[in-house]
Amino acid sequence: MSTAAIPGYTYGSGEVPRSPLTLDELGLLKESVLWSDDDDRALRLAHDVLTDQVDDILDVWYGFVASHPHLIHYFTRTSDGQPDGDYLARVRARFGQWILDTTSATYDQGWLDYADEIGRRHHRTSKNRIDAVDAVEHIPLRYLIAFIFPITATIKPFLAAKGHADNEIEAMQDAWRKVVILQVALWSRPYAREGDF
């Protein structure tokens, strides 16, 4: 799917406000997760490995969310409490592109801005707006943080699917874990009080 065809996907567009974080602050955050040039290489390899597996990965992640009522709740309509299938499909398309964007991350201003945008889309300040849906208005920060584990633990079989050496698989897994933690840290900004982030 072309990124232009992904509903609500605005990475790199003028619609995305500038992040209040600077690129220097992003660099310090990368240092804090022990990011290295080896991680850049491993993440690029992961991009090649995962590109044709995105739908299968999403099946696992969506299966996890759907099997937990307290998680699928955030995709339900306020009018009747039922999951909004169209909303789930729109988010799924962006989630798939997020895998590709994550593994080809440039860490430039556009990437930083969109990471901040993703955080706002989970928070009551912007949730539901891009999709014009009447769904539960806010995802608590605790679930963004807790979701680090399933998003990182379940990726390993996909990283191992192309027959790479064990050390390459571990390097990809480590890089994926670091970049997910990095992004969840960035996504948490809208949840912090002014001056606390």
Task: Describe this structure in a few short sentences.
This protein has helices at residues 23-32, 37-50, 54-66, 69-72, 85-103, 109-122, 141-146, 148-153, 156-159, 166-187. The chain has 197 residues and is mostly helical.
Mean pLDDT rating: 97
- CATH architecture descriptor name: Orthogonal Bundle
Number of helices: 10
Backbone shape: globular
Low-confidence region ranges: none
User: How many distinct beta strands?
Assistant: 0
In helices, the fraction of residues equals 55-70%
Fourth CATH level, the homologous superfamily: Globins
User: What's the multimeric state?
Assistant: single chain
Report the order of strands and helices: HHHHHHHHHH
Integer-rounded radius of gyration: 17 Å
Total domains: 1
- The N- and C-terminal alpha carbons lie at a distance of 36 Å
Counting helices, strands and paired strands, the structural category is mainly alpha
* The first-level CATH class name: Mainly Alpha
Write out key terms for the chains shown.
Globin-like; globular; mainly alpha; 197 residues; 0% strand; single chain
Folded structure, characterized:
This protein has 197 residues and is an all-alpha fold. It has one domain (48-191): Globin-like (Orthogonal Bundle), CATH 1.10.490. Helix content is 57%, strand content 0%. It contains 10 helices and no strands. It is globular, with a radius of gyration of 17 Å. The mean pLDDT is 97.
